[in-house]
Amino acid sequence: MRPSQKSRAPGVLKLAITRFTNDSLIDDVCEVLDRDGCIIIEDMISADVMDRFIADLAPWLERTPFGEQGFSGDRTRRCSALFAKSLATAEFVQNPIFLGAADAFLRPEFPMAAGEKRQMVKPSIQISVTQAIEIWPGQPAQDLHRDDGMYHAYHPGPQTLLQTLFAGTDFTAKNGATMAIPGSHKWDMDRIPTPQEAVCAEMRRGSGLLYFGSLYHGGGANMTEDERRLAIAISLTQGHRRQEENQYLVVPKETVRKYPRQVQELLGYQVSPPYCGWVEMCCPSIVLEETDFTVASSPSPHG
Ligand SMILES: O=C(O)CCC(=O)C(=O)O
Ligand SMILES: [Fe+2]
User: Fold this and answer.
1) CATH 3.40.50.280 fits 6-248, yes or no
2) Which positions of the chain have pLDDT values less than 70?
3) CB–CB of 146/162 below 8 Å?
4) N or C: which terminal CB in the chain sees fewer CB atoms within 10 Å?
5) Where are the domains of the chain?
6) The pTM of the whole model exceeds 0.90
């Protein structure tokens, strides 16, 4: 771990983004994430896994049109449904630091009441969005924003969303590396972020920027002549929330069956305690186990 350093830009005190590796202790990671709202994990994904993922993605990305002017970016291509397009996506979401941080910050205990009893329950973790974001030369910087606005999250307040932007190419100050404001996850709702406060998440291909949905950030401007910047975004949220990208509809059941159980659960095929997401009052994984499952063909075990 390299400790965070303060540097002075004219009139603005900026916090650098602290860097870890896959071998870092989860407690150290969580301490800095809690303080800064973002960290970089170097060499999070091996070159071999990244190569496999990008080879699978390439034909889809080729066919992806640019977005619209404004937030999506009219010199930016966004290709979603990554679990349907590359089985290598599993290795991104199964990163122990990513999942360890989600476990630490997104699973607060809740006292579920029934009569006089109070049962403490923790939500499950599930995938909210998957998206490859390719920023082309000429794309201006995106407005700094909080991703968790989607969940109507007020701040300062509890975390609802944890995202990693994995670098599919090197991220440089010139090619559109993500801009982020360390510490801004604690800002109130009225404070407006300015580009002067943001630092650039420069990192090598395979590294990742891990940040809370409450952190102000945005895609950087691509000022190169001919370099595209590729990010692979995967976010995690709590099981009782709605997925931003509907994984049930975009990943076919036969593809879901190819993933290990842990990934199936992250895609939403588990109950979030106490009982959110059941099918016929069973674990939703029943639809994967029975090849021809339909509600009509499967009488409820509860009669
Ligand atoms: O591409 C990036 O660096 C960030 C994109 C982003 O934050 C978003 O689209 O919500
Ligand atoms: Fe964002």
Assistant:
1) no
2) 1-11, 297-303
3) no
4) C
5) 6-248
6) yes
